[in-house]
Amino acid sequence: MSNKSAKHPQMTSYHARLASFDKKSWPHNKDTFIASPQALAETGFFYDPRPPSFLDRCVCFYCGVSLVGWEQTDFPRHEHLVHSPNCGFLEQPKKRQIPKFQQIYRQHFNELRQKHRETERDSQEKVGLIREIVFASLFEESSSQEP
Ligand SMILES: [Zn+2]
Questions:
Q1: Contact at 8 Å (CB) between 131 and 34?
Q2: pLDDT tens across 121-142, in order?
Q3: Which residues of the chain have pLDDT under 70?
Q4: What pLDDT is stored for residue 50 in this prediction?
Q5: Cα dihedral angle (10, 13, 97, 132), rounded to 10 degrees?
Q6: What is the predicted pLDDT for the residue at 84?
Q7: What SS3 state is found at 103?
Q8: C-alpha of residue 51 to centroid of ligand 1, in Å
Q9: Closest Cα to residue 44, out of 14, 81, 3, 10?
């Protein structure tokens, strides 16, 4: 991937993208939404709201696709692929992994929501744990394919 063809080269770094969420008020719950700032930044998105209508607008630094209307169970990498299947930031081997991960992730998430309604805090802790496990496995699989 060459960063020369990125639409927003100033957002090439993960940390720059993550920081874009800190500066402004991201409207969704960072603990219960799969599309957390970390997950969005990891799949190429930075935060670029357009008030008053598009308060959760995210833009891919590479292909420039912008997405709004995030829902609790939306999986950032999947949505990125659906709306911009030819994005150079999303490599071919990862594309084939997405449906599997999305399926596993949503299944875990839905089970959690059904089983753990005791306290909001309890549920959020478990969702955070699942998210870490899934991200860890994503990085494991991708690290063997990237230089
Ligand atoms: Zn993209």
A1: yes
A2: 555 666 666 666 565 555 544 4
A3: 1-4, 23-24, 91-147
A4: 92
A5: -140
A6: 92
A7: helix
A8: 22
A9: 14
Cα–ligand 1 centroid distance for 8 (angstroms): 10
Q: What values do phi and psi take at 131, rounded to 5?
A: -60, -40
Cα(147)–Cα(139) distance, rounded to whole angstroms?
A: 13
Residue at 71: amino acid letter: E
Domains, in order of start, for the chain:
3-143 (1.10.1170.10)
The neighbouring-strand residues paired with 58 are 47, 67
Ligand 1 centroid–CA 66 distance in Å is: 9
Q: How far apart are the first and last CA of the chain?
A: 11
Q: Residue 52: how many CB atoms within 10 A of its CB?
A: 6
Å from CA of 10 to ligand 1 middle: 14
What lies within 8 Å, CB to CB, of 7 at 6+ separation is: 60, 61, 62, 63, 64
The closest of 11, 86, 85, 6 to 42, measured between CA atoms, is 11
Please give the distance, rounded to the nearest whole angstrom, from the Cα atom of residue 139 to the centre of ligand 1.
18
